[in-house]
Amino acid sequence: MPKLKTKSSAKKRFRLTASGKVRSGVAFKRHNLRKRTQKMKRKARGTVILSDQDARIVKSYMPYA
User: Fold this and answer.
1) Which of 5, 8, 14, 63 would you call most buried, defined as having the most Cβ atoms within 10 angstroms of its Cβ?
2) Do residues 23 and 48 touch, judged by C-beta distance below 8 A?
3) Would you list the domain boundaries of the chain?
């Protein structure tokens, strides 16, 4: 059976934690930040753990992660 390819876009955007959860950056932080509230910008710092439904999709893109 041939090797499976990892999607390049997924390996740049997502990381797996030691327990197998998928970690991602927070969305809506690229531009137009002046119209966002300070609370939203503060909560969007760092990274987040994806929901189980989204994590299942992302894991299918990274077969060896």
Assistant:
1) 14
2) yes
3) 8-61
Tokens of 42: 């503060």
Average pLDDT over residues 2-17: 96
**In the numeric block, which tokens belong to residue 58?**
């992302």
> Could you tell me which of 64, 22, 30 has the C-alpha nearest to residue 47?
22
2 confidence band (pLDDT: 50, 70, 90): very high
Whole-number Å distance between alpha carbons of 1 and 63: 14
Strand pairing partners for 48? 24
Say what the pTM is.
0.82
Question: Which residue is associated with the tokens 């002046």?
Answer: 34
Cα atoms in the 13 Å half-sphere on the side-chain side of 21: 9
Instruction: Say what the pLDDT of residue 65 is.
Output: 85
